[in-house]
């Protein structure tokens, strides 16, 4: 029997994709199933941004671009980082990529060596751990305190740092917890990185989805001593409802961006010329109306979800201050299920009894929780939350 790569075989399929597959197969059998699993806005890309993409195609922007992206795209990103994030970089410090996912993968390939450890505050987006493994490194969880709403705590991160640590990977606003790091929390992580001579990768993809007056702060903007060791990742999937366009970017020290670009020249070459055009337009010329509309819709849905969860007597939640997920502790219900503890049993139970898909918290690093996405319409949310509530209360 010819062998497959052991590294590749060690990478499980994404848990959210597994949920989507289960939902699709139930739907194919005619079952009326709803999903709160999605990690993407249910909105269309704003009309004027769509048109910018169409103009790119008809205008001939259909060729290879520089591997790091067009000058137009890189300048638009550098302007945006200065204007919105207080992070002053030149266009040569920006690399366009096929989404934050691809930018992150190249950042890890550039920074991590076999044996290096990457500290990841947990709960976290599951892809982080697997991408670190693919890059040859070892992911090390820094478990955050759920009593604090999973606040980014530099002390807990420091406790996970060893002489082998190369990188600390932070995500604020956070998927799945909805926690938004304060300036002081980020400064403390920056200081830790300086003291221990670490790189920082910061994933800021949910920066535009904020609630209750939360402020998204870019760690690299807090001082040159932090900027020189930080790779900032961001993209268009969430804020501009552009998941399918596959466009994002990395910004950081020039020598790191150059290495990432050399790597990208061999893995994919440039990302889509059309997506770069549309994204540059989104940053420079788009009507802010559709963005505000989406932000308002997410805020209203969040209220709806929090009201529903408040009625579930055994559930505990810290209201998310960013992103579009409710990360809710359902362990009291899971404990009532028959049989030995199985971290996925409650999600399976909800799929079977309520016909609603949620993502088990184990995928993110805390089996007591489940993640409910509110990137779906109020009608679906009302129906799904009603069904979940009935199935949960029946367990008590
Ligand atoms: C924290 C986080 N980072 C990155 C991504 C992927 O972003 P992109 O579509 O830009 O690759 C996601 C998508 O779910 C995410 O939740």
Account of the 3D structure:
- The mean pLDDT is 96.
- The longest helix has 22 residues, at 289-310.
- Helix content is 43%, strand content 14%.
- It is globular and about 60 Å long.
- Strands 2-8-7-6-5-3-4 form a seven-stranded mixed beta sheet, with helices on both faces. Strands 9-10-13-12 form a four-stranded antiparallel beta sheet. A two-stranded parallel ribbon has the order 1-11.
- It has two domains: 6-44 and 289-393, Aspartate Aminotransferase, domain 1; 47-284, Type I PLP-dependent aspartate aminotransferase-like (Major domain) (Aspartate Aminotransferase, domain 2).
- The chain is built from 15 helices and 13 strands.
- Strand 12 and strand 13 (369-373) form a beta hairpin.
- By secondary structure, it is of the alpha/beta class.
- Bound molecules: pyridoxal-5'-phosphate.
- Residues 39, 99-101, 125, 171, 175, 203, 205, 235, 237, 243, 248 line the site of pyridoxal-5'-phosphate (PLP).
Keywords:
396 residues; 43% helix; Aspartate Aminotransferase, domain 2; alpha/beta; 4-stranded antiparallel beta sheet; 7-stranded mixed beta sheet; Aspartate Aminotransferase, domain 1; 2 domains; binds pyridoxal-5'-phosphate; 15 helices
- Between the first and last Cα atoms, what is the distance in angstroms? 51 Å
CATH topology of the largest domain: Aspartate Aminotransferase, domain 2
Largest sheet: 7 strands, mixed
Q: Tell me the name of the CATH homologous superfamily of the largest domain.
A: Type I PLP-dependent aspartate aminotransferase-like (Major domain)
């Amino acid at each position: 029997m010819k062998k497959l790569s052991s590294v590749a075989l060690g990478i499980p399929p994404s848990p959210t994709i597994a949920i989507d597959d289960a939902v699709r197969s139930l739907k194919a059998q005619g079952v009326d199933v709803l999903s709160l699993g999605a990690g993407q806005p249910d909105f269309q890309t704003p009309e004027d941004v769509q048109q910018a993409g169409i103009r790119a195609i008809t205008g001939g922007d259909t060729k290879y671009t520089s591997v790091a992206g067009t000058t137009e795209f890189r300048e638009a990103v550098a302007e945006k980082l200065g204007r919105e994030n207080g992070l002053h970089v030149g266009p040569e410090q920006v690399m366009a990529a096929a989404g934050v996912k691809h930018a992150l993968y190249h950042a890890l390939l550039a920074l991590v060596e076999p044996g290096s450890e990457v500290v990841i505050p947990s709960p976290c987006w599951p892809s982080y751990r697997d991408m670190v493994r693919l890059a040859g490194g070892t992911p090390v969880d820094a478990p955050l305190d759920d009593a604090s709403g999973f606040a980014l705590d530099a002390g807990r991160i420091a406790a996970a740092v060893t002489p082998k640590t190369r990188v600390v990977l932070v995500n604020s606003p956070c998927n799945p917890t909805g926690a938004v790091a304060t300036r002081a929390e980020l400064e403390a992580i920056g200081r830790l990185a300086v003291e221990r001579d670490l790189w920082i990768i910061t994933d800021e993809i949910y920066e535009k989805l904020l609630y209750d007056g939360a402020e998204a702060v870019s760690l690299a903007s807090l001082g040159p001593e932090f900027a020189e060791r930080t790779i900032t990742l961001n993209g268009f999937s969430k804020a501009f409802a552009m998941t399918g366009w596959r466009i994002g970017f990395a910004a950081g020290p020039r020598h790191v961006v150059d290495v990432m670009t050399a790597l990208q020249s061999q893995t994919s070459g440039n990302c889509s010329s059309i997506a770069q055009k549309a994204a540059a337009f989104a940053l420079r010329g788009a009507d802010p109306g559709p963005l505000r509309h989406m932000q308002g819709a997410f805020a209203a849905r969040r209220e709806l979800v929090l009201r529903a969860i408040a009625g579930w007597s055994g559930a505990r939640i810290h209201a998310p201050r960013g992103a579009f997920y409710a990360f809710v502790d359902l362990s009291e219900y899971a404990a009532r299920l028959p049989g030995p503890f199985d971290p996925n049993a409650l999600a399976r139970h909800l799929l079977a009894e309520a016909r609603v898909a949620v993502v088990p918290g184990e995928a993110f690093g805390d089996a007591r929780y489940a993640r409910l996405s509110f990137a779906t319409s109020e009608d679906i949310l009302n129906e799904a939350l009603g069904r979940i509530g009935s199935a949960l209360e029946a367990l008590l």
